[in-house]
């Protein structure tokens, strides 16, 4: 997820759906000392675990659709990178649209949106809808080769 990202130069990095923090750990290890990092997680138990594991990180307990409001609370309008661990294939269409609209509105020009999806979910209507939306919005959308070592196997999607 963070490979090929120049995080140490970023001013603002956001993670949506931080879950238990595996990407959070990698992101925090690569950002610069002046980079603002914000994680947004809806699940209350995950928020508590993230706050214990990463006590210096900013963790917001709310919907990823509130991305712009979260940035504004910290004096920012846009992020250089937005990472997402959200399950695009199983999100209701209105929720996915609200989150994607927030991502589109919150990325710096030239910014990068990185997410993933499991190989077995590629034909789900939610993933197809997600792909259509990002292809319409971003100048560049690339999908990694299958990461077979991940369980279950997954692909990483990078949007610029």
Descriptive report:
The longest helix is centred in the middle third of the chain and has 14 residues, at 93-106. The protein has 160 residues and is an alpha/beta fold. The protein is 33% helix and 26% strand. The relative contact order is 0.16.
SSE layout and pairings?
Layout lengths: L11 E5 L5 H9 L5 E6 L2 H10 L4 E4 L5 H7 L5 E6 L8 H14 E12 L6 H13 L3 E3 L10 E6 L1
Helix pairs in contact: 4-5
Quick description:
The chain has 160 residues and is of the alpha/beta class. It is built from five helices and seven strands. The model has no long low-confidence stretch (mean pLDDT 95).
The overall average pLDDT, rounded, is: 95
Shape: globular
Q: With helices defined by DSSP (H or I, 4 residues minimum), what is the helix count? A: 5
| Unreliable stretches covering 5 or more consecutive residues | none
CATH homologous superfamily classification: Vaccinia Virus protein VP39
Give the ordered list of helices and strands. Answer: EHEHEHEHEHEE
Quaternary structure? single chain
Q: Give the CATH class.
A: Alpha Beta
Helical amount: 25-40%
Sheet of most strands: 7 strands, mixed
Instruction: Report strand order across the widest sheet.
Output: 3-2-1-4-5-7-6
CATH architectural name: 3-Layer(aba) Sandwich
Provide the domain count: 1
Distance between the first and last residues' Cα: 14 Å
Please indicate the percent range of residues in DSSP E strands (runs of 2 or more).
25-35%
SS-based class: alpha/beta
Radius of gyration, CA atoms, in whole angstroms: 15 Å
What is the number of beta strands? 7
CATH topology-level fold name: Rossmann fold
């Amino acid at each position: 997820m963070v490979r090929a990202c120049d995080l140490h130069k970023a001013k603002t990095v956001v993670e949506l759906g931080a879950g238990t923090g595996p990407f959070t750990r990698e992101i925090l290890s690569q950002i610069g000392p002046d980079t603002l990092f914000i994680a947004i997680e809806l699940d209350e138990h995950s928020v508590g675990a993230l706050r214990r594991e990463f006590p210096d990180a900013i963790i917001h307990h709310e919907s990823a659709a509130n991305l712009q409001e979260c940035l504004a609370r910290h004096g920012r309008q846009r992020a250089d990178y937005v990472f997402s661990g959200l399950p695009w294939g199983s999100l209701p269409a209105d929720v996915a649209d609200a989150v994607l609209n927030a991502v589109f509105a919150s990325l710096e020009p030239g910014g990068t949106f990185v997410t993933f999806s499991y190989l077995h979910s590629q034909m789900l209507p939610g993933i197809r809808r997600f792909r259509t939306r990002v292809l319409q919005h971003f100048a560049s959308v690339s999908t990694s080769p299958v990461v077979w070592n991940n369980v279950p196997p997954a692909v990483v999607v990078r949007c610029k």
